[in-house]
Specification:
about 210 residues, eleven-stranded antiparallel beta sheet, about 0% helix
């Protein structure tokens, strides 16, 4: 259940690692997003990326996203070109507890649209606790992600996940269940709206 309209959404992502060493990784993702109770293709994305392990606690990455978005009342897609620069930090605080931080600086530019291009940052902070001998539950966690628009000078979204559970279904598949409070400044003048979301992510590694 996503966004602020009670809509059930289905996102599918396919990922391919096509080169990997101890320090470098090149991969490409393709994603489709179905809205309106999973009946309407509202967006699709293709995004290749490169990652470099600069330190045991730090990964650096760069990503280019080509994204098409359309509204349910239109057959036309608005095309976006998005460029991300990432820093991904992780520290093991104990044998079971880890803290991670992802900082993303991005530039969004629109094709054939009156929308202005803009710079954005996304900063995510997460705690994860690894579990042993807890049936299929292998980890619990919590995180929050803040979105900031540099052009408008506003913090416009926060996604807080007070609890997530990760299940190991098999050697190749994982299931994550989470609750999220999604807060948005929908009018860019401090008028915040809040959505309460239950989400699940099923992943399978071939």
């Amino acid at each position: 259940m996503a966004e602020h309209d009670g809509d059930m959404r289905y996102w599918q992502t396919l990922a391919l690692n096509y080169y990997e060493t101890d320090s470098w990784r090149f991969k490409v993702h393709a994603q489709t997003r179905l809205y309106d109770d999973a009946n309407f293709l509202g967006a699709y994305l293709v995004f290749p990326s490169v990652e470099y392990k600069a330190h045991k606690n730090l990964d650096l990455a760069a990503t280019y996203l080509y994204e098409g978005i359309r509204r349910s009342a239109s057959d036309d897609y608005t095309m976006l070109h998005i460029f991300w620069l990432h820093t991904n930090w992780q520290w093991n605080l104990s044998d079971h507890l880890s803290f991670s931080m992802r900082n993303v600086l991005g530039w969004r530019t629109f094709e054939s649209s009156a929308k202005n291009d803009y710079w954005i940052t996304r900063d995510k902070f997460a705690l994860s606790y690894r579990l042993n001998n807890m049936w299929r539950i292998v980890a619990i966690g919590a995180n929050t992600e803040l979105f900031y628009n540099f052009n408008e000078g506003t913090l416009f979204e926060n996604r807080a996940v007070p609890l997530s559970l990760t299940f190991k279904l098999s050697e190749q598949s994982m299931l994550s269940l989470y609750g999220m409070i999604q807060s948005k400044d929908v009018t860019a003048n401090g008028d915040w709206e809040h959505a309460y979301i239950f989400g699940q992510t099923l992943s399978y590694k071939f």
